[in-house]
Write a structure and sequence with these properties.
The chain is α/β, with parallel strands linked by helices. The protein has one domain: FAD/NAD(P)-binding domain (3-Layer(bba) Sandwich). 37% of the residues lie in helices and 26% in strands. It has 14 helices and 18 strands. The strands form 4 sheets. It has an 8-stranded mixed sheet with strand order 5-4-13-14-15-12-17-16. Strands 7-2-1-11-18 form a 5-stranded parallel sheet. Strand 8 and strand 9 form a beta hairpin. Helix 1 runs parallel beside helix 5 and helix 9 packs antiparallel against helix 10. The radius of gyration is 21 Å and the shape is globular. The two termini are 19 Å apart.
């Protein structure tokens, strides 16, 4: 089957590789020129890494990735260690693959290189506007003309043109704004940043930082509750003074890190409601187009990567049947899990941002007791997320 993919983000590129791996003929159409891919960092948990390794990307990913030793949660003002969770060897031993930190554009480059090496067409400056389904296939209207395919996969993000086929809704502003920056490790005091994913939790805001570029850079993301600005863009400049003001009164380590963040950007956080249906006879959604979620579990890209593998394998196993049968099964397999992850992500953000001292104290005691006195139980609570293995489940 010829399968047209709308969007060359992480989900679209992974889908193309997975579909090619399953014997199909994918072709990608991307609205942008891909010249300004974001410089933000990205966390890849084992559930996503398993898919990428299965697609033959182990060596290039490990060449650009950083393996953090742990996740550490700290108090915003005192820097007190509230809780921790080992990664590093623990993750590799428990789940079979590492947890990786890297730059988003580094991951994108790894995927694009693999797409080119495997002869998958990628047409830039060619947005997918709409399509017409027929019994014989699908006619896809793109910026470069109309083409025919057997299936259309819409991996064109939260502002998907094709989502309107399944729901008349708009992205909802969450009342939170995220700031991002990348700081050279050499510009920071020695040992200021630990080789971990560190989360500083405070009233109405939190900050996450971790190493990328094999430890040569520090990626930071700061999320602040605010209704004052709603422009959704990854490239809107922000003044360093604005970021510092948002974290006034926080621990000196946080302030030192923020003072070094010269090139800072911001974007408003949006989400979409869950869809009861995202597949028709020859069209389906993938990634943020189907299930955009908040970033507090670092699972947005991971869910798109999982989608890509499951879709490719379901189509392969049901190739002799009507495509609608496979697309319905793909939707059924993915909808329950992505809804669960989206809700858990929302709850994680609320837990980070507790406003009252009493609520924060109760949270800290619960998290601290769990990781110190009941470590195995504390670790096991993430098995449903990081231990999920789409590759073993869908060979």
């Amino acid at each position: 089957m010829k399968i047209v993919i709308a969007g060359a983000g992480i989900g679209g590129l992974t889908a193309a590789l997975a579909l090619k791996n399953s014997g199909f003929d994918p072709e990608i159409h991307e609205r942008s020129d891909l010249a300004s891919e974001s410089g933000a960092g990205i966390q890849l948990s084992p559930n996503a890494v398993k898919v990428l390794f299965a697609l033959g990307l182990r060596k290039p990913l490990q060449a650009v990735g950083f393996e953090p030793k742990a996740v550490r949660l700290r108090s915003f003002s005192s820097a007190r260690l509230v809780a921790y969770r080992p990664l590093g060897l623990f993750s590799a031993n428990r789940y079979g693959v590492p947890y990786l930190h890297l730059r988003r554009e580094a991951l994108h480059e790894v995927l694009r290189t693999a797409v080119a090496e495997r002869g998958i067409p990628l047409v830039t400056g060619s947005p997918v506007h709409d399509c017409d389904e027929t019994d014989a296939g699908v006619e896809v209207q793109t910026g470069s003309g109309t083409l025919r395919g057997d299936l259309l996969v819409a991996a064109d993000g939260i502002h998907s043109n094709l989502r309107a086929r399944f729901a008349e809704d708009e992205p909802r502003f969450t009342g939170m704004v995220a700031y991002r920056a990348v700081v050279a490790t050499a510009a920071l005091p020695a040992k200021l940043v630990e080789p971990t994913a560190t989360v500083w939790m405070g009233p109405g805001r939190h900050l996450v930082h971790y190493f990328v570029d094999q430890g040569e850079q520090v990626n930071l993301v700061a999320v602040v509750e605010s209704d004052a600005w709603r422009e959704e863009s990854w490239r809107t400049p922000a003044e360093a003074s604005e970021l510092l003001a948002a974290f006034s009164g926080w621990h000196r380590k946080v302030r030192t890190l923020l003072e070094a963040a010269g090139d800072c950007h911001k974007w408003a956080l949006f989400e979409r409601p869950s869809l009861p249906r995202w597949s028709s006879a020859r069209v389906t959604l993938l990634g943020d187009a189907a299930h955009a979620m908040l970033p507090f579990l670092a699972q947005g890209a991971a869910m798109a990567i999982e989608d890509a593998w499951v879709l490719s394998r379901v189509l392969e196993h049901r190739e002799e049947e009507a495509p609608a049968t496979a697309l319905t099964q793909y939707q059924q397999l993915r909808r329950l899990r992505t809804n669960k992850v989206a809700e858990a992500s929302r709850q994680q953000g609320e837990m980070f941002h507790l406003h009252t001292p009493g609520a924060r104290l109760a949270r800290d005691l619960r998290l601290g007791i769990g990781c110190r006195l009941l470590p195995e139980i504390a670790m096991a609570q993430y098995d449903w997320l990081h231990g999920y293995d789409p590759v073993r489940g869908f060979r």
